[in-house]
Design brief:
Length: 913
């Protein structure tokens, strides 16, 4: 009995096979094959299920490129795929002939593996390998074949333990089994079985050798690491730190939190990925959590070292704190030009786990900006950017965007005037084509866009251009390759909830109250802010960041634990940089968001619904661009008309059957209306967000019904060549730079008067900001079919003290601005806007400038006049776009606005009315 108990204890790390197969070895020519499926193993998704179970099955062949072939459509319940229940949680599937069953007719196509996912009839439940991997069964090559298996199936045993080895052949042969070179059993026939008692820790090689009657000899080996119980030893320095940590002496300590586990072995490339007893990790119990760790010496600098952890002898996982991850399925599909010297996955050895990569100088980069000044949080103009679709082949939707190409576009963003970019999630996600909200490894940048050094260069280049970089990150959930998700059975995972306790369930829901999860978030934030110098984060789906037991009153109710968890995240951020940016996608109650605002956090605020109505010519309330109008503290929101989650305004214009024809089909009408909307958003005090290419009136469909359309979108830089879309972009640019040139008028203590409600339709729409004798007035004609003469009382603006700071293209030289005392009257064409400002808001004092004693520049109605020119004069917009160059005295027709004229090496501003 004691020996039996020892054997059972020793086998706790054994891998229970999800499927067993007869005959063995299995070949393409085998007949009457029986696949036995154990539903209580692997993911156990069909454990206890009493309904019909079906196999979704295909093959990997010599011609399939590693992909499934000859599989039916998902959900095919044909009789041939139905399993027979033979016992509780045990099913069989019979395959009479592989070629006939799968429909393989090409004699040159060799089957390498059978592939399976077992499922319920309604596809609601699945059975897979541990960690959610598909199930594969090896198919031996034709001819004489040998297979060596172990029961239990394992590469790791805990002493004392007994393992039974079976050598099987396809024809009668002389067979022997040896252990570390010593023959332990010998016989003849088609199989030989031998049990080995492992009583001493060490590394063992079990070899089967078989010779058939024709003299053909084959060998197969299994490596077994025998270990004792894990040894307790204090982590260097006393407090465990997860991940690979390099010490001053060059040694590297690898550490992973694995509560409830008995053993973890480091399986590294420097040992050729062999499971060795010497790499069994120590454990350290700290604050009730078990950590496993080991220290390695002698790793060379500047070398990539892939590795994984083997947990309890069953589950292979990469390091959750890895700074780079290799993916066996998706890395080989990446364009090699994206990262030419990317570390390669060892596909010649295995392909069943992600690998972490340690490198002493990962992403080495020489930073040019050391003390970037983050813009004020209430004055952010953020450009939301999906690297996948930002660059690539013009007019194509090929998901070709890269960091290298995005770097080339940073001057465009700078000229546009934005002072922050928000990158949609870049953490290692499933697949190569994604929005990124399916993360698996939170500290590793996804390789689809480039190398770690590319990410750093992009951030550095943004900083050089005065642009902060914000990372979008999903702490609410993780995808199925997340290491801690794979390490535990469903329903008993300390890191993840069995089901989400809130209404925003996506993928696998983190347990936010669990101490190792909270520590992980700190490590994640520290890593991106210290290693990549990012300037803040936008947290996705924060309604799901409450404790698991905090949703008794519903997801939408005020949640103290959610507030506490978000404040904890904020403390992690500000510990790195007190000025760093924290944005929540919360859409929570005013009470909750006000409390978070007091902590220095910003809240996303969605004005897309009313913005869409404006876009098609309907009366709508746009006051919510201003935080105070939504009962939030002034300056605490990031409001937007478009985002990745919302429909494109220009698509809504084009697709809405209730929109007037001119706003559906005529760019000359549609784009000015979008420019007027941009003016109402951007000239409302507070921070705002622009979804990429919104400034060009991008009209691709962003939704599939109520769901997001996450498919790749066309690259649309050619929109800049379109007169109407280019004019819209110029309006965005002018409006943003008006704000940046006059930050005091958008401060909390400036006078703000918004007339942008549905009720303000007939009288026009105005935004009026003033402070200390400086004044800016936005005038918008909300009508889509007729011009309007609109009036507004002003304080400092006057006939002798005003400039047209910006206007939509439809206003042009037809702007009719008249003053009568403190009243200004402006005639504005349908859909259009005009911005007036006192001369000091334009940065000029008069409309006539003497550049040199001989050169005089004058701005009048619609023209710039240059006289006394000696050489050449250049006329630029405020954003630096050259309008015209002249070599002799000239009168140049231009739109109303502010220009920079450079002549004889001297530059100055001039106003055109």
């Amino acid at each position: 009995m004691l020996m039996l108990v020892a054997i059972i204890v020793g086998a706790v790390s054994a891998v229970a096979q999800v499927v067993t197969v007869t005959p063995q070895p299995l070949q393409q020519s085998s007949r009457d094959i029986t696949i036995t499926f154990h539903a209580d193993r692997g993911t156990a998704g069909l454990k206890g299920y009493t309904g019909d179970v079906y196999a979704h099955t295909g093959v990997i062949t010599s011609l399939s490129g590693g992909q499934w072939h000859y599989a039916p459509s998902w959900g095919d319940n044909s009789a041939k795929y139905k399993l027979k229940r033979v016992d509780t949680d045990v099913y069989t599937l019979t395959i009479p002939d592989i070629n006939q069953y799968y429909g393989i007719t090409n004699p040159a196509e060799t089957v390498l593996k059978l592939a399976f996912v077992f499922r319920s009839a309604d596809c609601s439940r699945e059975g897979k390998e541990t960690g959610g991997k598909d199930i594969f069964v090896d198919v031996a090559a034709p001819g004489f074949a040998l297979q060596l298996t172990s029961t239990p199936s394992t590469t790791l045993v805990q002493i004392p333990s007994t393992v039974t080895f079976t050598a099987s052949t396809t024809s009668s042969a002389t067979i022997e089994i040896s252990v570390n070179g010593t023959v332990a059993a010998k016989g003849s026939g088609t199989s030989l079985t031998h049990s080995v008692d492992f009583t001493k820790a060490g590394d063992y090689t079990v070899t089967a050798r078989a010779t058939d009657g024709a003299g053909q000899t084959m060998t197969k080996t299994l490596d077994i690491a025998a270990i004792g119980a894990a040894t307790a030893r204090t982590y260097p320095g006393g407090t465990p730190r997860m991940g690979a940590v390099t010490a001053a002496d060059g040694s590297v300590t690898f550490c992973i939190a694995a509560p409830g586990k008995n053993s973890v072995i480091l399986v590294p490339s420097w040992d050729d990925y062999k499971v060795l007893s010497a790499n069994a990790m120590y454990y350290h119990d700290h604050q009730g959590i078990r950590y496993f760790w080991t220290t390695v010496k002698g790793l060379s600098k500047g070398v990539d070292y892939p590795y994984y952890y083997l947990v309890d002898g069953q589950t292979k996982v990469a390091d959750p704190c890895a700074s780079l991850v290799l993916d066996p399925e998706n890395d080989r599909r990446l364009d090699p030009t994206v990262w030419p010297d990317m570390p390669q996955y060892p596909l010649d050895k295995f392909n069943d786990t992600h690998l972490a990569v340690y490198r002493s100088d990962m992403g080495a980069y020489s930073w040019r900006v050391d003390n970037f000044e983050i813009p004020d949080h209430d004055d952010l103009i953020i450009y939301e950017l999906l690297l996948r679709d930002f660059t690539g082949t013009e007019g194509q939707a090929n998901a070709e965007g890269t960091l290298r190409d995005a770097i080339d576009k940073i001057p465009y963003l700078h000229a546009l005037g934005v002072n922050a970019v928000e990158l949609m999630p870049i953490m290692e996600f499933s697949g190569n084509n994604s929005w990124g909200y399916n993360p698996n490894f939170y500290m590793a940048p996804d390789k689809a866009y480039g190398s770690p050094a590319d990410y750093k260069e992009f951030i550095d280049e943004c900083h050089l251009h005065g642009i902060a970089v914000i990372l979008d990150i999903a702490l609410n959930h993780a995808d199925g390759h997340a290491p801690w998700y794979r390490m535990y059975p469903a329903g008993s995972n300390p890191f993840f909830n069995p089901t989400a306790p809130h209404d925003y369930s996506v993928f696998n829901d983190w347990r936010q109250e669990y101490a190792p999860v909270q520590l992980y978030w700190k490590e994640v934030i520290d890593h991106w802010m210290q290693e990549y110098r990012v300037d803040g984060f936008r947290f996705d789906l924060v309604k799901g960041l409450g404790d698991s037991d905090s949703y008794a009153k519903g997801t939408e109710a005020y949640n103290p634990s959610r507030v506490a968890n978000l404040k904890r995240l904020h403390s992690y951020i500000t510990a790195n940089n007190p000025r760093a940016i924290h944005i929540n996608e919360g859409f929570m109650t005013p009470q909750e968001e006000t409390e978070l605002a007091a902590d220095g956090q910003l809240q996303w605020y969605n004005v897309n619904g009313n913005s869409c109505q404006w876009a098609i010519g309907n009366a709508s309330n746009l006051r919510d661009f201003y935080a105070a109008e939504s009962k939030r503290p002034v300056g605490s929101t990031v409001s937007y008309a478009e985002s990745h989650d919302e429909q494109r305004l220009a698509y809504f214009q084009n697709s809405s059957t209730s929109a007037p024809n001119a706003l559906r089909y005529t760019l000359g009408e549609r784009m000015p209306r979008l420019a007027s909307l941009a003016a109402m958003m951007l000239l409302t005090p507070g921070s705002h967000l622009i979804w990429q290419f919104g400034e060009l009136g991008d009209d691709q469909n962003n939704k599939n019904g109520n769901d997001n359309n996450t498919n790749p979108k066309r690259v649309v830089w050619s929109h800049l060549d379109n007169t109407h879309r280019g004019a819209l972009k110029q309006c965005y640019q002018d409006l943003i730079w008006i704000r940046r040139a006059n930050p005091d008028l958008f401060d909390d203590d400036a006078s703000v008067n918004l007339l942008t409600t549905a009720a303000d339709w007939a009288s026009g729409r105005f935004i009026h900001v003033a402070k200390g004798g400086r004044e800016i007035l936005l005038v918008v004609n909300p009508y889509h079919d007729s011009p309007r003469t609109l009036s507004r009382t002003v304080s400092s603006l006057s006939a002798s003290n005003y400039a047209i700071l910006s206007s939509s293209a439809g206003v042009g030289n037809s702007a009719d601005v008249r003053f009568n005392g403190n009243n200004v009257t402006v005639t504005v064409p349908a859909n259009n806007y005009i911005v007036l400002g006192t001369l000091d808001t334009a940065g000029v004092d008069d409309i006539t400038t003497d550049l040199t004693p001989s050169v005089k520049v004058t701005g009048t109605v619609g023209v710039i006049t240059i006289s006394g020119l000696n050489d050449v004069a250049h006329i630029f917009t405020l954003a630096g776009t050259r309008v015209k160059s002249v070599t002799a005295d000239a009168t140049v027709a231009v739109e109303p606005g502010i220009y920079i004229v450079s002549a004889d090496g001297i530059s100055s501003k001039v106003i055109v009315k």
